[in-house]
Amino acid sequence: xxxxxxxxxxxxxxxxxxxxxxxxxxxxxxxxxxxxxxxxxxxxxxxxxxxxxxxxxxxxxxxxxxxxxxxxxxxxxxxxxxxxxxxxxxxxxxxxxxxxxxxxxxxxxxxxxxxxxxxxxxxxxxxxxxxxxxxxxxxxxxxxxxxxxxxxxxxxxxxxxxxxxxxxxxxxxxxxxxxxxxxxxxxxxxxxxxxxxxxxxxxxxxxxxxxxxxxxxxxxxxxxxxxxxxxxxxxxxxxxxxxxxxxxxxxxxxxxxxxxxxxxxxxxxxxxxxxxxxxxxxxxxxxxxxxxxxxxxxxxxxxxxxxxxxxxxxxxxxxxxxxxxxxxxxxxxxxxxxxxxxxxxxxxxxxxxxxxxxxxxxxxxxxxxxxxxxx
Amino acid sequence: xxxxxxxxxxxxxxxxxxxxxxxxxxxxxxxxxxxxxxxxxxxxxxxxxxxxxxxxxxxxxxxxxxxxxxxxxxxxxxxxxxxxxxxxxxxxxxxxxxxxxxxxxxxxxxxxxxxxxxxxxxxxxxxxxxxxxxxxxxxxxxxxxxxxxxxxxxxxxxxxxxxxxxxxxxxxxxxxxxxxxxxxxxxxxxxxxxxxxxxxxxxxxxxxxxxxxxxxxxxxxxxxxxxxxxxxxxxxxxxxxxxxxxxxxxxxxxxxxxxxxxxxxxxxxxxxxxxxxxxxxxxxxxxxxxxxxxxxxxxxxxxxxxxxxxxxxxxxxxxxxxxxxxxxxxxxxxxxxxxxxxxxxxxxxxxxxxxxxxxxxxxxxxxxxxxxxxx
Amino acid sequence: xxxxxxxxxxxxxxxxxxxxxxxxxxxxxxxxxxxxxxxxxxxxxxxxxxxxxxxxxxxxxxxxxxxxxxxxxxxxxxxxxxxxxxxxxxxxxxxxxxxxxxxxxxxxxxxxxxxxxxxxxxxxxxxxxxxxxxxxxxxxxxxxxxxxxxxxxxxxxxxxxxxxxxxxxxxxxxxxxxxxxxxxxxxxxxxxxxxxxxxxxxxxxxxxxxxxxxxxxxxxxxxxxxxxxxxxxxxxxxxxxxxxxxxxxxxxxxxxxxxxxxxxxxxxxxxxxxxxxxxxxxxxxxxxxxxxxxxxxxxxxxxxxxxxxxxxxxxxxxxxxxxxxxxxxxxxxxxxxxxxxxxxxxxxxxxxxxxxxxxxxxxxxxxxxxxxxxx
Amino acid sequence: xxxxxxxxxxxxxxxxxxxxxxxxxxxxxxxxxxxxxxxxxxxxxxxxxxxxxxxxxxxxxxxxxxxxxxxxxxxxxxxxxxxxxxxxxxxxxxxxxxxxxxxxxxxxxxxxxxxxxxxxxxxxxxxxxxxxxxxxxxxxxxxxxxxxxxxxxxxxxxxxxxxxxxxxxxxxxxxxxxxxxxxxxxxxxxxxxxxxxxxxxxxxxxxxxxxxxxxxxxxxxxxxxxxxxxxxxxxxxxxxxxxxxxxxxxxxxxxxxxxxxxxxxxxxxxxxxxxxxxxxxxxxxxxxxxxxxxxxxxxxxxxxxxxxxxxxxxxxxxxxxxxxxxxxxxxxxxxxxxxxxxxxxxxxxxxxxxxxxxxxxxxxxxxxxxxxxxx
Lengths: 375, 375, 375, 375
Known about the structure:
The structure is a homotetramer. Chain A is of the alpha+beta class. Chain A has helices at 37-48, 91-94, 106-113, 130-145, 170-182, 192-207, 235-243, 265-268, 339-361; strands at 4-5, 10-14, 21-27, 64-67, 69-70, 73-74, 79-84, 150-158, 161-162, 214-221, 249-254, 272-275, 278-281, 289-290, 293-294, 299-305, 315-318, 325-328. In chain A, the strands form 6 sheets. Chain A has a 5-stranded antiparallel sheet with strand order 1-2-3-7-4, with helices on one face. Chain A has a single domain (4-363), classed as Chorismate synthase, AroC fold (4-Layer Sandwich), CATH 3.60.150. Chains A and D meet through strand 13 and helix 9 of A and strand 13 and helix 9 of D.
């Protein structure tokens, strides 16, 4: 029953969609780390993604820091942040309370919590719990940026449409990443036309009371080589554990990922080459990771995001109280595609994992600046 | 620097390929759990996979228990097991010691350990470290089997050839799983003819001094609904973290996985149906997991395994000492495909993750049988 | 930087004395566990200990549950509780802000957090952080009580006065424990006359602008034998770690504790005897623990609580900004003795540690009641 | 069931007294850390303490590194060390196998492990498990020494005799600590005459078939201020958890410890004073820790060590198989006093806790020397 993750830096989530508030506790952020509340607010905006595509439900996510932040800097103690649940309409969910929604966790939550769970609006399983993740993520992204590490995510695939790929040229890649992170519109893509096709595909599905999924691709630049550990604390292990925590993610791959299955070794290996006094690779099919450890090339990961389970079409299901078959017809407000909003969640989770990896990778080191030590 | 994983049950790995010995420490196994050394030996045999396909290197992996097991039962204290490194030929690696092998961790280990690592034979990154994983896995697989949970893995894809799929009929599925686990031959497949095609593809690549990869698919039956936690301790998060710890795994997916990207919600959702007094789903695209928690349907996961990086073709690389370009021509004994041997490693890791999930899912419960309590 | 403790059940604290709110997140409480808010309120009352002895500062500690509790039962997900900081007077602390208060953490916090800490009122180091501990403790005490385990604490020593000891007769012990837990007055003692002497000693010190310390003794009955692990997760290790987390605790002992130093083995050992069909010991110098594991006899532990560092007498110190000597004269509201209020904190921490021990001791066990499992 | 402790650096113990081997796995030691096998051997010598006082049992503890050390330096991966159990005489224990030895863990182990435990020689509870602790401790002590941190322990009390105290003069203290660590004789004391009295007291008890206990006092110098965290990861919490893991420790105190119970605040507080450009305290009753964090003054801790439970006098007990009363008369080889040997164990555990505290205290910091990073 652990909603906590991390070794040196930990993140604990709490809250139910229709409970009093949701939030998170972040431990391990060093005293003096800047906490920019305006950047945090802009990240929350990206998550809210107010467009015609998203649901009409307005979620004014105002983040309140209860502890750990003073005058814009982390105090070094636990940072607790909460978001009150104010704009909910329980009525939307009442009519279907006993029916197990296909693709959702109603049934499994019942199996696990025996009826004690707060099931309204999906309860603890609601995508709403990604809000504190994004709030915390803002702090982690800033910590990385301060060290020259950049993170950006685009919708590599959505509704059957593929976006253009990230560039292999470092300068062009930087430009693409900056554009993604500055993007106002909800569809974070590299090619605007593909974005338009995606929009049409999403709307087409929505008009049929259906939903679509896709693939989110994240790239991280500026990492030094040497982060991560072989085996259980490998870069892939840590990041995958975090990425799979997102509701709706059913696949994670790095570099060529499942594409490796069709390659020969000679096609898969990345040759090492000297570049500007350092070591790089000629290609990057390994996505920046060798043996679970970063090699300094851009870190590339992708998640498979399934279509939103909540659709308006009639679905066969079972009544959890009686065990009898039933037909579910959802009402209320449901997103036909969560990718536009999920991309900033993925940025946040990746940032968290990388900050934790940086700390773990340090090993045991002495405090370099023993202030106030005495004779 | 943590080679330890798990919450209630933990597994700690140690060892370098050419060091004195490799091994593992397993904590959390309840007193009285049977430890069948013959089953353990047969699992080690599967890992050795002595066929014409594998390398000529014979690894007589004899497992020695240093603690925690007495008269065939776990004592309840830490179980330490070791495997001596006896059949190694350091000479095989000496000639190329300074060159970073593409696809391997030579460069990243140098970045991380600054030259202090034991690099012979891949050191701590060697696939050899999967030997103690398989030894420990035998204990975990037995614990699951005692509760009616079965695990089986086949080569879903290898060298461009696809195996037949697992059956959706429970009885046929059981038969397929039993056949896989009993299989003598190195290629664990459901369709013998496909197996033959795979063999030819592997040999074709080997004859060209190259290698191939593929996809391993694991199915688990008999799990109750309710295991796992939402978010960070979800079934996918835990199992993915373990699966990605295997050398060469670059992708993990559950159920339809990356296939979800092309589906509509109406095609992706699994309808709930009553079946034999319980609740099941009509389809199983979610691979047995909803909201990070098991729903009782077969758990289905797949890993993308990249082609063995060690190939005999000449490769461009860099000399780690001088930073200058160089050409690498490997000699020695290298596997053209690791999938035949990796499948039992995947079984073992999956078993470990599931045993740990069962424990975590228990929550806080009183010791049901307070023996020897006093007045 | 970890304010989290526990293995199966974890408790995370956050908050600064003069920040927005303080609170805690509790993970691992099983779904369906009752949460009695009236009992919780009475425990908070005991901590507030409104008597002439305590400070005039009124702390209306109203606990608010943000998540994890619904209709009086735990949902099985993370329980977050907060307590707003409403009745504070920052002015009390402003005048001495730069001076390191002897016995307090002003200097060490400056060394650790480099000035980024929220130092008002002691910040994160304030005894106020014991409020969420007591709130969480109420849940843990109830969980133990439901299984027949009782916890009680008295002021064994205070201001140089010793209380009567706990009885060795089980029935009398039960009566004493019930009386302690029902006690209205702030001084939880077994002998009312000794309590009066203590009161006079506290007031004598207070009238001189000074403070006193003492010893808190906790006894736990009803535990089964077999809880705890040898070495690092021994009963003493876990409970001591928790007891030492209380501000002002500088010593912890079990059973005869430091008294053992003067005993011979023949005087120290507890002989085993049969009693009512079970096994007990004739004496209990080992305080209910052998080899780090409970033996079923009453668990007995004591903490040494130092005198409140905040006294009104002038004290020599240093100005943290200038490094120059200075004289500190505290004003404001300070407790001459924290033992009356600390005893319920000790109950709470002991309860937390025992609940966690019970869970860890279970080992790996199958979920006994696989509800909703499917074919 | 966790024999593992630590956050950044972890130590896992395994082994039974009469099993194949005992050992430990240490994770988190940075690559390049020197591992001096001669110092390790001298520490093992201290633990063996071959004198007339100790038992005749000769334990040739030869430590073998299975992994993690190469050419005298840590590789950065897990360090596994083992010690074979070669010099045991199972016969010594056979006659009393069913009888619960008072003060020992026979009964509690039976309650916990239901008969599956390896009980010979005390099994996993044997003091023998301190051997790998001392081996690991040698590495930690060296790591601390490299940073100017010194650890030393003396027998503050033994058999009713008190040693001279540690000096408050820094130069004299350093001399005393060096003498303790260089001491050849088994009784690590500051005053040789007191040591002789102790020797006579131990022999007097031994001649009567009895045993004695005492108090071990450890002082640590050279620590910077700022280590440790408030509450659960306080210096006292971490070190106490480790010290209480030693067999026979029943009390831990810091600074004045239980002596605080009799002091007024004005007598207990340590005034801050400037000293040589830094901040120190005029007295050190708080033992170098304020609010759970080091303040730079010498860290002072004491453990209460109970008399060896194994005595030759007849003792009343119960037969674990029949539940009937019985009389126990031990034979074999038993130490009349474990303090001479335990002091190096206490050094080792303290060193381990401090190394872990140093790492945790670092917070999240970037890898200062990004070697091999690429463009």
